[in-house]
Design a protein that fits this description.
The structure holds two protein chains of two kinds. Chain A is an all-alpha fold. Chain A contains 16 helices and two strands. A two-stranded antiparallel sheet of chain A has the order 1-2. In chain A, a hairpin with a 2-residue loop joins β1 and β2. The longest helix of chain A has 36 residues. Classes of the chains: A mainly alpha, B alpha+beta. Chains A and B meet through α1, β1 and α16 of A and α10, α11, α12, β3 and β4 of B.
Chain lengths: 359, 442
């Protein structure tokens, strides 16, 4: 090491062969902030549609509100993947925006006793709020559009239904705004923390992506299909599927996977450097025998195929053709192992968030 | 021959190195205990966890409730101050050893070789007459002063330090380290943005140079420290080596522990000069101190070093790759040899068909989960804990616990780690080879 030290003194000031800093600048400016901004715009549109609907509660405005909601929920899928970055984690982004299955009984109970204020919603646990709660209020597989509209018009608790929905929207807007605000100050730290330690940006990204794939496997696929961990049981629960009432489970799985692919590739409005480009330069072989970076993308594609094989209605697939859901679960698990074991190993990042003495 | 050994061990030597070591070691203990508390680790590691990974045979050792653990660390800090100043030294050194070792035995999660080293050295300090010079004990007349002590009092410290380096070096003689330069290849590559030396890490030969140099350094450094002629250069090498590793890797206080500990190799003259910096007077008397139970302690120490010699090789009693099974891994001075990650999830089943996946985070801290995931003995302990938890709190009958685990080691792709058809709740916790660890495949 003395030798290394000796030649080091003649070396250039700073090297970062791949361009990690450039990658983080790309993530911050080209991908993450635009994602939160477009989600923010979609939430504002939702708010506007909601205001229109609450002054003029009719079928046309309900339909417009539903569309605005679906746009916002779709936009959320570009933001969900940063859960372990400090701004999202501090704001508890997932808990506030997209935890499911939602507890419809509790929501009905709150509405029944007119507990609908914004501060009340803020204080509730994750399964009582966010986009899934709104989805439950705005869509139904059994009620007709007219009957849904009646919740907000002639139902004895119509005013409370409207108020709870309004508070849900406001809460999401506040959380989104706090994340954007924190990113403005955090950005400099983010693009300059190039290390693999617990507070390094690589650690945050790797941990975030792994968490996302874990949630994808567990919540989007596993829980509705009756998986308790890695064991399939006969206790399927199709209604626990994401956006069950609006029948968007499959569409959102595809959004999740395609977004994962884009983010790994560093692709936003322009195609910049991403984590997968960095992994590719390390020339690490995966379990499947190819370059880890390519095998991750290939495995995401396998998952996309398996999602498509499930048809258009995941809840229905679980009930009538469960082997298709099982096949999807199996492939998602392989993807999770790649993201949670192989990627950290290749990068020397640990799946933990604490600092410690080492040796 | 025996006469020579006896002469070597019992011949009187100056007490100055031991006294100066006591001061530096005490200061280091004080610094690291205060740092530990200041970092909030008492709460994080000993108050927050609901479950602790006991060492086999030490299951009776439990953390104190409430703020009790802060009193333990308070006691440690007080004892370290007393050691530093040589005040009530005997009581302080014994207290420090017991408090520190008690804390270390609470949870395998926090095992570190340098904590083990501190435990051993502080146990040795309990029987050494380190307060017979440059101490408040002498000043206050609590103990008498001496100029000379038997050579073994200094030699055992040197020998213990030599063991640390030497076995750390022997452990580096393995294919991953020498032939594939792993895990250094992974670790250095991700540090190519470091100022000044970062650019080096883009040359694939550099991790090999580091690996081979590290191995040779560890194996030989103690011998160079013992030799009068090479000592100054060897000590400079120690400082440079530890400063660089500390700069590159998150290894906490370990480098400073070693920089301080190797101080004991210097000559009596050197230490006398060092002590004079603190206006500690030259030793005037010619009193030779002979510890009580002199031969008894020497016999005990021989036994200690015999164990030190054997422990690092106990892994040979187990089948399969050591880094994979980690059977016989701890207490062997294996430092920074692995980049290992694993994903380990548990499923609990009962006789009535109830099934549940365990959310590890409900029971373990992130640090515990990470350590548990990669270490089979901890996986087994956690499985036993889960069986009990699910039977007593969730009404499971005859809970069966299965682990689904994938691990990646030193640049090899992930592979299945634990046999997921084995009910771990029924596997005994002991030192027998764990047959449910799947073999490592190249």
């Amino acid at each position: 090491m003395c030798f290394a030290f000796a030649i080091a003194c003649k070396g250039p000031e700073n090297t970062d062969e791949f361009g990690k800093k450039e990658m983080f600048i790309n993530y911050a400016d080209n991908i993450i902030l635009p994602a939160y901004t477009s989600y923010g715009t979609a939430l504002n549109n939702l708010q506007t549609a909601f205001t229109t609907f609450s002054t003029n509660t009719d079928a046309t405005n309900l339909s417009a509100l539903q569309t605005a909601f679906l746009n916002a929920y779709a936009a959320w899928h570009t933001c969900e993947i940063y859960e372990k970055t400090p701004p999202a984690e501090n704001a508890m982004a997932i808990d506030n925006n997209n935890y499911f299955p939602t507890r419809k009984d509790s929501i009905e109970a709150y509405i029944g006793r007119n507990s609908t204020s914004l501060s009340f919603v803020q204080s509730r646990i994750k399964s009582d709020k966010g986009l899934p709660a709104m989805e439950y209020l705005l869509f139904s597989r059994t009620l007709t559009p007219t009957q849904i509209l009646e919740r907000f018009t002639i139902h004895p608790n119509a005013a409370a239904y409207t108020a709870y929905l309004g508070s849900l929207i406001s809460n999401c807007i506040n959380v989104q705004a706090s994340i954007v605000t924190e990113w403005a100050t955090y950005r400099d730290t983010y693009i300059n923390s190039l290390g693999t330690d617990a507070a390094g940006s690589i650690s945050y990204m790797v941990n975030s992506f792994a968490q996302r794939v874990d949630d994808f496997k567990r919540h989007q696929i596993g829980i509705p299909a009756g998986y308790q961990g890695n064991v399939a049981t006969i206790n399927i629960n199709p209604q626990a599927a994401q956006a069950y009432n609006a029948n968007k489970s499959i569409e959102y799985m595809l959004l999740t996977l395609n977004n994962l692919k884009d983010v790994l590739n560093g692709k936003g409005a322009v195609d910049g450097k991403g984590l997968n480009d960095y992994i590719r330069t390390l020339n690490v072989t995966s379990t499947f025998g190819g370059n880890l970076a390519d095998d991750i993308l290939a495995q995401i594609d396998v998952c996309i195929d398996k999602v498509n094989a499930c048809g258009v209605d995941y809840a229905n697939t679980i009930t009538t053709d469960k082997p298709k859901a099982d096949a999807l679960f199996l492939e998602a698990k392989k993807l999770l192992v790649l993201m949670k074991v192989d990627v950290p190993s290749a990068l020397g990042v640990s799946i933990t968030y604490t600092d410690s003495d080492g040796d | 021959m025996i006469a020579n050994v006896k002469n070597f061990l019992y011949r009187p030597v100056s007490i100055a190195p031991l006294a100066s070591f006591r001061i530096l070691f005490g200061a280091m203990l004080l610094f690291s205990s205060v740092r530990f508390v200041a970092k909030g680790w008492v709460d994080l590691l000993y108050i927050q966890p609901q479950f602790f990974f006991a060492y086999e045979g030490f299951e009776f050792i439990k953390p104190l409730l409430g703020n009790g653990m802060y009193f333990v660390f308070g006691g440690m800090i007080l004892a370290a101050i007393c050691i530093l100043f040589g005040l009530f030294y005997r009581v302080a050194s014994i207290a420090f050893f017991f408090l520190f070792t008690y804390v270390e035995l609470l949870d395998k999660t926090n095992y570190l070789n340098h904590y083990y080293f501190v435990s051993i050295i502080s146990l040795m300090m309990c029987i050494l007459p380190a307060n017979k010079h440059a101490s408040l004990d002498v000043k206050l007349g609590i103990t008498s002063t001496s100029a000379y002590i038997p050579n073994w009092c200094i030699f055992i410290l040197q020998l213990q330090i030599a063991c640390v380096y030497f076995f750390a070096g022997i452990a580096k003689i393995n294919p991953d380290w020498l032939l594939h330069a792993q895990p250094l290849t992974i670790w250095l590559k991700s540090r190519d943005h470091y100022p000044i030396i970062g650019f080096l890490f883009n040359y694939s030969i550099v991790p090999y140079l580091f690996s081979w140099f590290g191995m040779l350094f560890d194996i030989s450094i103690a011998f160079f420290l013992w030799n009068n002629k090479t000592r100054p250069f060897a000590y400079i090498a120690v400082v440079v080596f530890h400063v660089i590793t500390s700069y590159l890797f998150q290894i906490g206080v370990f480098p400073f522990v070693m920089i301080v500990a190797t101080w004991i190799f210097f000559s009596a003259n050197f230490h006398q000069k060092f002590l004079s910096i603190f206006s500690i007077a030259q030793i005037q008397n010619k009193i030779i101190y002979t510890p009580k139970f002199n031969s008894f302690f020497v016999a005990l120490l021989c036994f200690h070093f015999l164990i030190q010699l054997l422990l690092p090789f106990r892994y040979a009693l187990y089948p399969n790759k050591l880094f994979w099974t980690e059977q016989g891994y701890r207490f062997s001075w294996r430092v920074m040899l692995m980049e290992k990650n694993a994903l380990t999830t548990f499923v609990v089943k009962d006789a009535n068909g109830k099934i549940e996946e365990v959310c590890n985070r409900n029971y373990l801290t992130p640090q515990q989960e990470k350590q548990m995931s990669t270490q089979p003995d901890m996986i087994l302990q956690f499985a036993h804990f889960l069986a009990n938890e699910y039977e007593t709190k969730k009404g499971f009958k005859n809970a069966e616990v299965y682990a689904d685990s994938y691990a990646a080691l030193n640049g090899h792709p992930s592979q299945a780690f634990i046999d997921n058809t084995i009910d771990l709740a029924k596997q005994p916790i002991n030192f027998a080879p764990k047959k449910w660890i799947l073999p490592f495949k190249k």
